[in-house]
Amino acid sequence: MSVNKRPTREEAERVLDHLADSIETGNAAEIAADLKDSGHDLNDVASQLKAAALAGVKGFRQQRLHRARQRYQESSSRIERRTRHFGDSSEERRLRFFSVLEARPELKSALTMQHRDLNELTDTDIDSALEELEVLGALEDLDDGHS
Amino acid sequence: MLTDKPRSKSEKVATVDEISESIEKLLPEEWAQLYAYAKNRARMMALYGSALDAKDLVQSAITTLLEERRTWNPKKVTFLGVLLGAMKSMASNHKEKSLVSGYSVPESQLVSGDADGQSETPVDLHPDSRLNPEQQMVAAENENDIVGLVSELCDFVQDDVEACLVMDGWSEGLSGTEIIQTLEIDRKAYETIAKRIRRKSTARWPKVSNHVSE
């Protein structure tokens, strides 16, 4: 890269890369002194970058809070939906589940059940089975049939 | 010591509290080094259409650490070191994405000008659909500014023969070791020359007004 010849983008990039190496491996105090000599206010530099770094932390915390809130809302609406569609108590949900299977015995095979004996199903199994039946549209079909 | 090898990968994921504490503990001269490095990488990224500044890069480096996209072993690497490493990766990834997306094309594939003598910029050739026309114009101006800064630096060191030779080696793509061998100097002498160029760039570049340097 001769004097008076404008560098290409790639040449400029290579120069910047080597300067970056020199900054990375250089002495922090010397780099700070160079910046000061060139008119930089080191306190201002530090406070601006620190503010940016802390903004990164704050942004991450808010994002995490937002995700937690989202998860809470999703879980709340799932519980609400479950209560509305499947029944308030675990007993009601169990009854609902068996009434669906009674009305639509062919659905038994559509459910991926670990327990062959349906009476051994736990409340959690019942809840997830009802959710599967809801996804399959079986609950709506049954509700429509009853109405 | 200048090295041609990248830093080794760190191993541990830092907690939010560890990062916050480390930010508070950084010394003024370490902030200065971080700033110089961030500004350098922002300039490099501007060559590939970025409009991020030093502060944006520092904030993003913190975010990549917190989001566990980069791990950190405090016993092996300092907090400053891991931030510099994060920014190095961000700049490199940005360049790669820019080339893949078609916003930027390798220099070798650029045409130097059309029949009317009007040069086509990378923006003309590969407009980035993610940027509006104004943003594309700013990105193209940034790229042009940075090439101009490097050109000015070359002029600025022209009285220093050794610095000119080393800068020539850099722009030609030689590694530090290759330059040392070519110029028949030792590593210490090379580092001293590199430091002189770095100082000149620090002294010269802040005086130039552009979108990313300040």
Description:
The complex is a heterodimer of chains A (147) and B (214). By secondary structure, chain A is mainly α. Helices cover 76% and strands 0% of the residues of chain A. Chain A has 7 helices and no strands. Chain A is elongated. In chain A, 25% of the residues are buried. The longest helix of chain B is centred in the last third of the chain and has 24 residues, at 133-156. The model of chain B is unreliable at 1-7, 110-127 and 207-214 (pLDDT under 50). Helices cover 61% and strands 0% of the residues of chain B. Chain B starts with 15 loop residues before the first helix and ends in a 10-residue tail after the last helix. In chain B, helix 3 crosses helix 4 (79-101). Chain B has 214 residues and is mostly helical. Chains A and B meet through helix 1, helix 2 and helix 3 of A and helix 1, helix 2, helix 3, helix 4 and helix 6 of B.
What's this entry about, in short?
The complex is a heterodimer of chains A (147) and B (214). Chain A is an all-alpha fold and 147 residues long.
Q: What is the chain-wise order of helices and strands of chain B?
A: HHHHHHHHH
Total DSSP helices of chain A: 7
Strand content of chain A: under 5%
The best one-word shape of chain B is globular
- As a whole number of angstroms, the C-alpha radius of gyration of chain B is 19 Å
